[in-house]
Amino acid sequence: MKKLSLDRVLQTQGFGSRKWCRAAIESGEVCVGGELVQDYRAEFDTSDLVFSVFDEPWQYREHVYLVLNKPTGYECSRKPSHHPGVLSLLPEQFARRDVQPVGRLDHDTTGMLLMSDDGAFIHAQSSPKSHIPKVYIATTHDPVTPELIARLLGGVKLHDEPLPLSALRCDQVGEHQMEIVLEQGKYHQVKRMLAAAGNHCSALSRVAIGQLALDTLGVAEGDWAYLSARQIEKLVPSE
Ligand code: URA
Q: How many angstroms is it from 121 CA to the middle of ligand 1?
């Protein structure tokens, strides 16, 4: 059991500075389990703790694990320069508790982006050693051919990589579309592999990570959702 004072609860959940949280509590803006609490020193067990701030309900979470269905035109970097950042698509509490994207998608890539404030989870997901397959739908400028698929499966050489990189799986799904599965997460990897194989990627969307497919989550483009423990398990490859 972990007990925290109410001002600490709010602060850990990203509502603002200790000072801001105390003022919100003292002015009657915070309820716990449906009861108004105006003493910021009051302590609560954080397991299953439900509270509201300005009438909006929240559940205490030690860490958050989110999926964002990323639209085009947003950057994943912490200091976006040319486009708005993906954090601007989430409630501002998340930025304050240091939620960050797990890996990166290009500004013009859409689809499944994990976000979390759990450093161990971010590391495990992004480490090249974890071999987590990522599934993309790539739209190509020139038609997809069996030779193109064979080249991507056989391995293509990218100029700054010592060894050829190959797709784990690659299937044609339309005249100009393929589903391509990669285990690594190198910079612009799908686009560069397609270019090295003699085609051009004109649109890219990530549709699954591990065994978790975006279309099973009911998250519309531009929206986000919390991931359940069972969904998180599906992100890790089974032995
Ligand atoms: N590969 C790319 O080229 N871009 C992405 O955003 C993801 C994978």
A: 21
**115/218 same-domain check:** yes
CA distance 2 to 175: 56
Last residue of a domain, one of 59, 76, 105: 59
* Structural domain range at position 20: 3-59
Query: Is 170 in the same domain as 218?
Result: no
At residue 166, φ and ψ (nearest 5 deg) are -125, 155
pTM value is 0.93
Asked if residue 238 is part of any domain, the answer here is: no
205 lines ligand 1 (CB under 6 A): no
Per-residue pLDDT tens digits of the chain, which is 239 residues long: 789 999 999 999 999 999 999 999 999 999 999 999 999 999 999 999 999 999 999 999 999 999 999 999 999 988 888 999 999 999 999 999 999 999 999 999 999 999 999 999 999 998 888 889 999 999 999 999 999 999 999 999 998 899 999 999 999 999 999 999 999 889 999 999 999 999 999 999 999 999 999 999 999 999 999 999 999 999 976 55
Query: Rounded to the nearest 5°, which phi and psi values hold at 6?
Result: -60, -35
Ligand 1 pocket test, pick from 77, 86, 106 with the greatest ligand atom count within 8 Å of Cβ, gives 106
User: For the chain, what is the domain count?
Assistant: 3
